[in-house]
Amino acid sequence: MKEKMIFHRTIQNIKALARLDAFSRDESNRRKQFNALVLFGLPTMGAYGIYNLLNADYFDCWFIFLSAAGIMIGWLLARRLDDPGPVYHVNTFLFSLLALAMMISGGEGGSKLLWMYNFPLISYFFFGPVAGSVWLCVILISILVVLWPPFGLFITYPYPLEMKLRFLSTFLIFSGVICWVEYLKTSYLAKIKHKTLRLEQEIASRRTAEAAREKTICELQLALDEIKTLSGLVPICANCKKIRDDKGFWNGLEPYIEQRSTVSFTHGMCPECEDELYGEQGWYIRRKKEQKAKQVAKA
After folding, report:
1. Cβ(250)–Cβ(242) under 8 Å?
2. CB atoms within 10 A of CB 140
3. Are residues 32 and 157 in the same domain?
4. 177 and 283, same structural domain?
5. Contact 75, 38 (CB under 8 A)
6. How confident is the model at residue 256 (pLDDT cuts 50, 70, 90)?
7. Model confidence at 169, in pLDDT bands (50, 70, 90)?
8. Structural domain boundaries enclosing 27
9. What share of the chain is helix, strand, coil (3-state, %, to 5)?
10. Residue 249: which H helix or E strand, with range?
11. 195-to-30, 50, 228 alpha-carbon distances in Å
């Protein structure tokens, strides 16, 4: 059970690294890193190439110049291509060949071996923790082949055993530190990107809610504008009860109120008007007597 949990956790960590690796391959970041490589790397390579030329070390000289030319061409292609991923891999391969050539030639007491310390920076900064580790494993195997040529296939600089072991240990430590720094950087940037995305979504939702609120306010304002109320002094005729409007026209009471409010009239008759209109008619007199008898009976 414990082994399954460890295996499951390992798989989750690998998936997390893969997601971070995909984020680290963000094209804008890689272009900036490639620009930095060209800005600082090409002048340095040019200076060492000229130095080797002056010292009649023509093999290293032309190898450096060809590598620099390849990196420059790759930089120009990366600026024009939509997906310059293959260009980064080709340039990393060219740099690895240059570093391995420097290792083979040795030079000045084997100091050219130090060029190899640049490779972890290039591989991890260009390709992220996962793909960068793959490149690092490839170059590490190549380093072992150069330091200990199998079956004497080629002749390399005779590095002392102590120097080989120190280089390998420091190279592995340096590569591990760079990998960890790259992991922390990409994870931090991924968190920032996630928080930025959440903020953008929150802003969008708030803008939507604000637009809905503004729409509701406009609808309510329109509804309020449609509501008509009567206020102030109303000029009314003392005899016929007609009302004078703002234009000086006399209107009946019902039309005047209906036009200026949401009131609608229904018609009936008060008892006084009923007596005045129907008081002398027999049906009305009988109905009145019946109503009075019912009232007495209830009492």
Report:
1. yes
2. 17
3. yes
4. no
5. yes
6. confident
7. very high
8. 2-191
9. 80, 0, 20
10. none
11. 22, 49, 51
Domain endpoint, select from 159, 175, 191: 191
Distance CA 171, CA 147 (A): 13
Residues facing 243 on adjacent strands = 236, 251
Contacts of 108 (CB under 8 A, 6+ apart): none
Question: How many independent structural domains does the chain possess?
Answer: 2
Looking at the DSSP assignment, which residues form a beta bridge with residue 250?
Answer: 244
Find tokens 């094209």 and name the residue.
27
Q: What is the DSSP letter of 236?
A: B
217 within a domain of the structure (yes/no)? no
- Phi and psi at residue 25, in whole multiples of 5°? -85, 20
pLDDT band with cut points at 50, 70 and 90 for residue 5 = low
Interior angle at CA 243, CA 242 and CA 248, nearest 5: 120
Residue 31: name the closest of 96, 62, 75, 71 by CA.
75
User: Is residue 50 located within the same domain as residue 151?
Assistant: yes
Statement: residue 19 has pLDDT above 60? no
- Average pLDDT over the chain, rounded to whole? 79
Count of other CB atoms within 10 angstroms of residue 112: 20
> Over 50: is that where the pLDDT of 150 sits?
yes
pTM tops 0.85: no
Do residues 42 and 72 lie in contact, with contact meaning Cβ atoms separated by under 8 Å? yes
